[in-house]
Amino acid sequence: MAKVSKRIFAYIIDMFLVLILSTLLVSIIPQSSEYKEVNKEFNNVINEMFLNENFSEQAIENQTNKLSDLTYDLNKVSVVSNLVIVVLYFVYFVVLECYNKGQTLGKRLMKIRVVSENDDDANFKQILLRGIIIYPMLYDLLKSLLILVVNKSTYLSLSEIISMTNTILLVICFITMIANSKGLHDRAARTKVIDDILDNEDKKISTWEKNSKAKKTNKNKNKKVSDRVKNHVVSKEDK
User: Fold this and answer.
1) Based on CB atoms within 10 Å of each CB, which residue in 28, 38, 149, 205 is the most buried?
2) Number of domains within the chain
3) Is 220 contained in some domain?
């Protein structure tokens, strides 16, 4: 089993890479004038809250409510961008890991990979299930779809519940992973994370053992042939 520290570093690397990729993707998607206006107002409210130290409690509450409203408006006008990010999560954490022998770029850098409990390569369903639990793609997808079918108050309430559920599951995954090297997502998907170096060494040892057995078998065969030839020669001399 791979060290927990290596798994955590791999997770951080992967999330950082996805953040960069998603930022680049969103930047090339044409944004509407409505999005630009809402985003500008959203940033202004954030700056006011952090830079102004003389806010009263009532003013802070008003700004917080305004920020919630702007968050809803911002999400509503950026559904396409959010769905693109969900697709990016799916491609990176599921498709790449599935068809790259259980490795994302972060796992590859840390020299670890995901396999089934029986040491076979993890299949698509296993990679998808563990990915849904530990990465935010399902939660982001739900929030992107909800905003299209429910009103503002319902969306804000459900969005908070979804975000809280995501956070709780992530914390449980890391706690169980630290406790016994196997997180909730691994248990659910029946997978484990191993050191790729050790796996390669095992393969080398296995190959060496096979070659040694083959050489030993050939040596025994040659010895038997040699003994037969000697016996044949001796029998001829006796005659």
Assistant:
1) 38
2) 1
3) no
Kindly report, residue by residue over 152-164, the tens digit of the pLDDT.
989 989 999 999 9
Where do we find the tokens 């911002």? 74
Q: How far apart are CA 114 and CA 37, in angstroms?
A: 44
Full DSSP string of 181-210? S--HHHHHHTEEEEEHHHHHHHHHHHHHHH
Mean pLDDT by 10 residues, the chain (239 residues): 90 95 88 83 80 69 81 87 93 94 94 93 95 92 92 91 93 91 92 77 51 63 59 54
Alpha-carbon dihedral 156, 157, 159, 162, rounded to 10 degrees: 170
Residue 160 covered by a domain:
yes
Residue 205 domain-assigned (yes or no): no
Residue 66 tokens read as: 């305004």
In a domain, 102, yes or no: yes
Assess contact for 74 and 38: CB atoms under 8 A: yes
Structure token pair of residue 35? 């999005």
Bridge partner residues of 113 (DSSP): 194
Residue-range definition of the domain harbouring residue 61: 4-195
